[in-house]
């Protein structure tokens, strides 16, 4: 008798579990994963339709998805099985996010739960050094000083850069002064005490790990190193050429080793 009762309980549990699974909808796809751009729409596609056609393509303030850290924006059902979220402003730089599908998506459906809706994680691009160059600053070759320009993908605090920066010239540590005094994408540093000779110098800029961009949460996990050449102050060289077109005219940006 006890065996029959136990068997009945097991069968009932399996039936309930099976019924719950049948009433669950699954998050089949989302582009909210891995590295994402600072500004762009997120797509959440389910394996079953859940929204009536009459309610499609309407911007909605219903909190269908929760984000941590919070992201302000609006939702729109693109199709019965596809939900779009459009952030109202760029995401935070170098920040990791998690998201969870809330029960609000089930309001107009026959389903009572969402599978795989609580395993969403993504992040914005990490802080990176995009460009570095050295330009001689001064009115003459004998009084000019070399300036290192570091260009990052986000604004950084120059005080944080100063604490973590090491500058070497010909393998020896060199002294420097910060030119940039407020957070910016471009941090300029002037090398001091370098003798002006008609020769090129090998230079290396190193930033220890732990640099955090302004408004970001994640710090750099590895050191940033850039090997540079300090050109002779007596020779004008072209360091870089950048072309762009705005639709009506073309522009060429020329970067030289000295001010013109």
Topology of this protein?
Elements: H1 2-22, E1 24-30, E2 34-35, E3 42-46, E4 59-60, E5 65-68, E6 73-79, E7 82-87, E8 96-101, E9 113-115, E10 120-123, E11 129-137, E12 145-156, H2 158-164, E13 165-169, E14 172-173, E15 175-178, E16 184-192, E17 201-207, E18 224-230, E19 238-245, E20 250-256
Parallel strand pairs: 1-9, 2-10
Antiparallel strand pairs: 1-3, 3-7, 4-6, 5-8, 6-7, 8-10, 11-12, 12-16, 13-14, 13-17, 15-16, 17-18, 19-20
Short description:
The chain has 260 residues and is mainly beta. It contains 2 helices and 20 strands. The chain is elongated.
Keyword list:
elongated; 260 residues; Immunoglobulin-like; 2 domains; mainly beta; 45% strand
Structure description:
Residues 5-21 have low confidence and may be disordered. With 260 residues, the protein is mostly beta strands. It contains two helices and 20 strands. The strands form five sheets. Strands 4-6-7-3-1-9 form a six-stranded mixed sheet. Strands 2-10-8-5 form a four-stranded mixed sheet, with no helix packed on it. A four-stranded antiparallel sheet has the order 11-12-16-15. It has two domains: 23-123, Immunoglobulin-like; 129-256, Immunoglobulin-like (Sandwich).
**Estimated share of beta-strand residues:** 35-45%
Summed over residues and divided by their number, the pLDDT gives a mean of 86
The number of helical runs is 2
Largest β sheet strand count, sense and barrel closure: 6 strands, mixed
Form type: elongated
The CATH architecture of the largest domain can be given as: Sandwich
CATH topology of the largest domain: Immunoglobulin-like
Q: Quaternary status of these chains?
A: single chain
Q: What radius of gyration results from the CA coordinates?
A: 28 Å
Number of domains: 2
State the CATH class of the largest domain: Mainly Beta
Structural class comes to: mainly beta
Percent range of helical residues: 10-25%
Number of strands: 20
The succession of helices and strands, N to C, reads HEEEEEEEEEEEEHEEEEEEEE
Terminal Cα span: 99 Å
Low-confidence stretches: 5-21
């Amino acid at each position: 008798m006890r065996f029959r009762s136990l068997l009945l309980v097991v069968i009932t549990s399996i039936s309930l579990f099976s019924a719950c699974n049948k009433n669950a909808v699954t998050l089949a796809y989302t582009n909210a994963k891995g590295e994402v751009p600072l500004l762009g729409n997120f797509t959440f596609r389910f394996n079953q339709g859940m929204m009536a056609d009459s309610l499609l393509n309407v911007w909605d303030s219903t909190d269908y998805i929760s984000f941590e850290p919070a992201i302000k924006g609006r939702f729109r059902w693109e199709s019965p099985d596809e939900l779009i979220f459009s952030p109202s402003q760029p995401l935070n730089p170098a920040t990791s996010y998690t998201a969870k599908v809330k029960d609000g998506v089930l309001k107009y459906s026959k389903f009572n739960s969402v599978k795989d809706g609580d395993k969403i994680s993504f992040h914005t691009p990490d802080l990176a050094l995009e460009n570095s160059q050295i330009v001689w600053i001064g009115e003459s070759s004998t009084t000019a000083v070399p300036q290192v320009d570091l260009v990052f993908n986000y604004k950084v605090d120059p005080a944080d850069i100063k604490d973590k920066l090491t500058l070497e010239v010909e393998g020896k540590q060199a002294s420097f002064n910060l030119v940039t005094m407020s957070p910016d994408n471009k941090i300029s540093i002037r090398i001091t005490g370098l003798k002006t000779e008609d020769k090129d110098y090998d230079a290396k800029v190193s930033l220890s790990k732990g640099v955090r961009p302004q408004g970001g949460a994640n710090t750099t996990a590895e050191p940033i190193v850039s090997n540079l050449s300090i050109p002779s102050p007596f020779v004008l060289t072209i360091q870089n050429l950048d072309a762009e077109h705005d639709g009506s005219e073309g522009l060429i940006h020329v970067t030289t080793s000295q001010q013109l």
